Recover the amino acids of this structure.
């Protein structure tokens, strides 16, 4: 019984609940950490999916210092904070987890529509086609995961894991996609507020261990 309890405790400590969806605290082997998120609603009442933001550990540590003591409401009202997320070139990810089954064409079409006013038409088309390829047609099942990972002027799309199912080699896609959720007119206000709430709760970064000095080498003894 003790072993089972310990296993459950470890599992619980490795995830965080966001509106009923369990999110891992880390991605990319610990290089990205969970900040926060919320739910995307349809018609203001039907839960479609939860979405969370992951940022590099360096970014998380910087935010923990820069925004120490700030209430979540203060951060949520700070447009420059969200602008810094959108414009930052550092590694980051969005993870969507679905509350209900949705047609894959509907998912791809909804994100295409959200990006239409933010990107040139050829780029929107490239993103839409890449997402459709990654989803593979049919239904996006309840509990399914879609990863959008931003790095090196590209967006990698993963389904079920961060591993690439499709790639969009266009540097403007990531800022536009982040603007969909964290810009002035977000499609999910709760997801935007969830990031501010998450930053307000970030722990202080652990101090780096000082390198230990090597002991002095013994001088060789002279032979008599």
């Amino acid at each position: 019984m003790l072993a089972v309890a310990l296993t459950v405790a470890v599992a619980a400590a490795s995830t965080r609940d966001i509106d009923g969806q369990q999110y891992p605290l880390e991605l990319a082997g610990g290089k990205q950490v969970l900040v926060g998120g919320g739910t995307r609603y349809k018609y203001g009442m039907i839960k479609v999916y939860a979405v969370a933001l992951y940022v590099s550990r360096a970014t998380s540590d910087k935010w923990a210092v820069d925004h120490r003591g700030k209430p979540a409401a203060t951060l949520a009202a700070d447009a420059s904070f969200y602008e810094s997320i959108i414009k930052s070139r550092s590694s980051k990810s969005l993870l969507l987890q679905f509350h209900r089954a949705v047609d894959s064409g509907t998912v791809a079409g909804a994100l295409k529509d959200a990006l239409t006013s933010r990107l040139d038409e050829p780029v929107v088309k490239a993103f839409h086609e890449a997402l459709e390829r990654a989803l593979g047609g049919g239904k996006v099942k309840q509990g399914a995961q879609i990863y959008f990972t931003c790095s090196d002027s590209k967006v990698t799309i993963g389904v079920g894991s961060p591993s690439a199912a499709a790639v969009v080699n266009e540097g403007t896609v990531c800022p536009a996609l982040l603007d969909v959720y964290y810009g002035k007119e977000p499609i999910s206000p709760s997801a935007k507020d969830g990031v501010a709430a998450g930053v307000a709760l970030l722990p202080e970064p652990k101090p780096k261990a000082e390198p230990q000095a090597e002991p002095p080498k013994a001088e060789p003894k002279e032979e008599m």
About this structure: The radius of gyration is 21 Å.
